[in-house]
Input
Amino acid sequence: MKVAVFATPKSGANRRRPRRLRALAEVAEAHGAVLHATHSLEELDRAVASLAHDRPDVLAINGGDGTVHRVLTAAVQVLDPLPTLAILPGGTMDIAARSTGWLGRGAEGLERVCAGGLRTTERSLLTVDGRWAGFLFGNGLIARFLEVYEEVPDPTAARAAQILARGAASAMVGGPFAEQLTRRWRGEVELDGEVLAGDDWLAVAAGTVEQIGLGFRPFRDARAGRMHAVALGSSVGRFARELPRVYGRRPLREPGNVERPATRLVLRSDEPASFMVDGDFHRGGQELVVEVGQTVTLLVP
Output
């Protein structure tokens, strides 16, 4: 079995614990896997492009969720279909890895991948703005949360939890921090050809894996061939009441909040779009299309 491994030395866990990357390299060498430890987007793109001439059976990714997103975005351009994927932990939040059951250290995960015999599951990628590939999309509150989260040079999961707690406390007293996070996105939301009622949204999000971080699982109906889309039109206070339901994988019920399985999401606004894909922040035009893309096979422990 030919295994190609992509790792980012700059990802959260790898940067804070460089020994983990060395352990990953030792496992790769022991099993004849090819390790690509890339330090820039240009280097990553070149390494992924080389796979067109040396196609692996398994593409393993060790890094943060942004690394997963960047590798997949490059890989769909040169590998059709994609090889079997293994999303190994190696970042700060590891949302995609956790959503597919991978915990612990990347080297331990790679050892299991190379040993063979793992189960598989299928999920579909999202194609965002005709350019980006990943598992998660969000705008509004979600994108602004990410902006605040990345204001420090080395953000951690603890910082994400701190922002959430600070935002909740600020919302209780109508404070400026909550106002900054919850500035609403105004525009039209279309799901599978149906335009939703309303044009004033706290956030619009979609996922093809269940989790979005910190234990929250808003995309419980994500399956191969479909995304779970969520449009939050409620007030901040009503959305806060939804959080225990989101954490517990239960349906939203506050007025103005919409969720359903879908294959195509279109956002239209008078303002240029700001959004995140798998934890990476991007900007787009006044119309943004999020579609279900290629279905991939994922190794699960």
The two ends are 17 Å apart (CA to CA).
